Amino acid sequence: MLFLFVKLPILCQLTLYRMKNDISQSSLFHWIYKPDQFLYLPTDNLVYLQYDNYKDDKGYFYGRNERFDETVEQCINTSLVSLFTSNRLLQQENVKRSHSFYYPNAISRSLINQNVPNNIVVKDSVTIGFIGQIDNSFSSEILESIATQYPQYQIVLVGPVSNAKAQEVIDSHSNIIEKGYVPYEELSELISTFDIGICPYSFDTFNTYRNPLKVYEFFSYGLPVVCTNCDVDENTKGYLSVTSSVDEFIQKISYELTTNTVAKKHFRINFAKNNCWDNRADFVIQKLKAFT
């Protein structure tokens, strides 16, 4: 059934695509990002990307399949290049093959702020910002604590809300502003109004392996960042705060605001410049050339 109704139609589509665009079989690479795709997508010229701790992803049912570990091993061993979005993911799989690499998140180069003021602007009010989906991986407890401990600050949340507890917190605090979904091209205008960015994810094993895209987005404007115990890039240590409790998260917001410097701002922006999607594309192309 899987072959007839999933794999065969995909193979037909790929064959037509190659014929239409005059692409040879050897020139086409197949990029998969979920282990179960290995079961029905072509595995020749394969690039495998693992971006989550799939076993702890409650929405990914194949993560609980008895063949899951075997399938992940096949993905890694069959691929020309295997990519892992966090170092913890890379270590978790105990990858020893030379074709496996750390491949962190990245941003569009259009998001990079080109006009960084050579001073720290002191404002009458502080805006704490978050960008992303406010789902079950988002900590309503942290949000509640921020709103309560910093009633004088404005908290701006950008992204759709599907977390019911978080919605209750939003509705019960006047200093929280819910923006909802905002198109990517309009993010720059919003980020420029933030004084600090937050990544208030729940303290659990799923988020421990997360390499937060938000850090790169906030860094594009030189913003200080506070996040939970995610797997942030080692090169960002000292330029953001990684926390292991709600109380520490609250404390580090004040710390990051008071210890921010122009030098830190410039480092963050330069880091973001070196972590755009064109950088990632160049990296993969170089590796594929080396392994083909």
Describe what you observe in this structure:
This protein is an alpha/beta fold. It has eleven helices and ten strands. The strands form two sheets. Strands 7-6-5-8-9-10 form a six-stranded parallel β-sheet, with helices on both faces. A four-stranded parallel β-sheet has the order 1-2-3-4. Helix 3 links the parallel strand 3 (81-84) and strand 4 (100-102). Helix 8 packs across helix 10 (262-273). The longest helix is centred in the N-terminal third of the chain and has 20 residues, at 2-21. The protein is globular.
- How far apart, in Å, are the first and last alpha carbons? 33 Å
**Biggest sheet descriptor:** 6 strands, parallel
Bin the helical content: 25-40%
Strand-pairing-aware structural class? alpha/beta
Q: Please, what is the average pLDDT?
A: 92
Count of beta strands: 10
Molecular shape: globular
State Rg: 21 Å
Q: Number of DSSP helices?
A: 11
**What's the arrangement of strands in the largest beta sheet?**
7-6-5-8-9-10
Topology order in helix (H) and strand (E) letters: HEEHEHEEHEHEHEHHEEHHH
How much strand content do the residues show?
A: 5-15%
Q: Which regions are unreliable across 5 or more consecutive residues at pLDDT < 50?
A: none
Short overview:
By secondary structure, the chain is of the alpha/beta class. It has helices spanning 2-21, 68-78, 87-92, 140-149, 164-172, 187-191, 205-208, 213-219, 246-258, 262-273, 277-291, and strands at 30-32, 46-50, 81-84, 100-102, 127-131, 154-158, 176-180, 196-199, 225-227, 241-242.
